[in-house]
Amino acid sequence: MDFKQLVFSGVQPTGNLHLGNYLGAIQRFVALQDSYDCLYCVVDMHAITVWQDPVELKKQIREVTAAFIAAGIDPKRHIVFNQSQVSGHAELAWVFNCVARLGWLNRMTQFKEKAGKDRENASVGLYAYPSLMAADILLYRATHVPVGEDQKQHLELTRDIAQKFNNDFGPSIAAKGLGEVFFPLPEPLIGGPAARVMSLRDGAKKMSKSDPSDLSRINLTDDADTVASKIRKAKTDPEPLPSEAEGLKGRPEAENLVGIYAALGEVSKDKVLAEFGGGQFSTFKAALVDLAVAKLGPIGGEMKRLVAEPGHIDDILRDGAARARVLADATMSHVKDIVGFVR
Ligand code: TRP
Q1: 214-305 CATH pick, 3.90.380.10, 3.30.1450.10, 3.40.50.10800, 1.10.240.10
Q2: What are the start-end ranges of the E strands in the chain?
Q3: Where are the domain boundaries for CATH 1.10.240.10 in the chain?
Q4: CA separation for the pair 25, 64 (Å, rounded)
Q5: Does residue 12 have its Cβ closer than 6 Å to ligand 1?
Q6: Which of 13, 155, 171, 180 is the most buried (most CB within 10 A)?
Q7: Average pLDDT of the segment spanning 155-162
Q8: Nearest atom (ligand 1) to Cα of 142
Q9: Are the CB atoms for 85 and 45 separated by under 8 Å?
Q10: Does residue 133 line the site of ligand 1, with CB under 6 A?
Q11: Rounded distance, CA 181 to CA 171, Å?
């Protein structure tokens, strides 16, 4: 069966957004708008799998939405909404909890990392998180999912759930005249020059909102002076820059900064090094500051302006949710019929 090409992705409203979120996710969401119909979701139900302060959560949901809009996602042409406003996510997640096997979830590395040593004390929601993520995607029968490397395993699980549902209910799907398979097996869209943005203090660690040092990351709402000083203080090594990307091997800090420049400038690392190879980091860093400030400054400014007007953001989310609900309800009606629920 042919499925309509559709992109779905989600961002958790937890902690301040930083350059890693922008280059790894949001900038790519913007680029996909011309080739696909897109749904971009602020996944607030995923956020509460670990404790969130209610006042902070509300603020963060609006801040992620503001970042989407400020970066150039068009909420009229596409759909921008928060997950909890469309009840189909929770409903389909329950069905998927009954499709997915314990053994599958036991293999999820992100759960092991997030639960840490005290696994007995992790929420049931944190454990079942991947089946909610599968529901997010399959509720719209989305075919393409831009995600970071760290979400690849969850996307594979999504495919396994889709396939098992299609199999387990094959005769029921066919009997309803819905074709041979009901859910597509969604493809990850991974890659780009900065698929992984690393800490500015340690090229072996991912840039992260939970790093205790604020110097390790560039927040989307940092002002120009802060961005400049963080880049100037970023860790490097004593060698001059190589003239080809190949020469970045074994030099994680250099590779990270070149990757950031390439991603922000939307060019290849080789192109960046053709310009800066052989030169000192100080020259390169000055150019990186200019590029970062030119790219991120307007986004941060627009985010602040939008966040100051929460009523407008809430309108965007409500409108997006209403349009998402139309698609979600259609899928859920079929799912209920397929499973054998009376409605
Ligand atoms: N788990 C993703 C993350 O932490 C967020 C997410 C939730 C998501 N649902 C999704 C991403 C559906 C893509 C598609 O980054």
Answers
A1: 1.10.240.10
A2: 6-11, 37-42, 79-82, 144-146, 187-189
A3: 214-305
A4: 12
A5: yes
A6: 13
A7: 98
A8: 14
A9: no
A10: yes
A11: 10
Q: Residue 91 CB: number of other CB atoms within 10 A?
A: 17
Q: What angle do CA 187, 197, 14 make, to 5 degrees?
A: 80
Starting at the edge strand that comes first in sequence, how are the strands of the sheet with 37-42 ordered? 79-82, 37-42, 6-11, 144-146, 187-189
144 lines ligand 1 (CB under 6 A): no
Give the tens place of pLDDT for each residue, 217-268.
999 999 999 999 999 999 999 999 999 999 999 999 999 999 999 999 999 9
pTM of the model: 0.95
Q: To the nearest 5 percent, what fractions of the chain are helix, strand and coil? A: 60, 10, 35
Convert the pLDDT of each residue in 41-56 to its tens digit.
999 999 999 999 999 9
Q: Which of 246, 242, 250 lies closest to 275, judged by CA? A: 242
* Closest C-alpha to ligand 1, atom 8: 10
CA 293 – CA 300 distance, rounded (Å): 10
* Contact call for residues 184 and 170 (beta carbons, < 8 A): no
Known binder of ligand: residue 123?
Answer: no
Residue type, 314: D
Residue of 320, 317, 319 lying closest to 62 (CA atoms): 317
Q: Which whole number is the average pLDDT over 59-75?
A: 98
Cα dihedral 231/234/237/241 (nearest 10): -20
Judge whether 184 and 3 are in contact, CB under 8 Å.
yes
Q: Is 148 annotated as a binding residue?
A: yes
Instruction: Give mean pLDDT, residues 315-323.
Output: 98
**Where, residue-wise, is CATH 3.40.50.620 in the chain?**
6-195+310-339
Tokens, residue 219: 């927040």
Which residues are the active-site residues? 114, 206, 209
Counted residue by residue, the chain has a size of 343
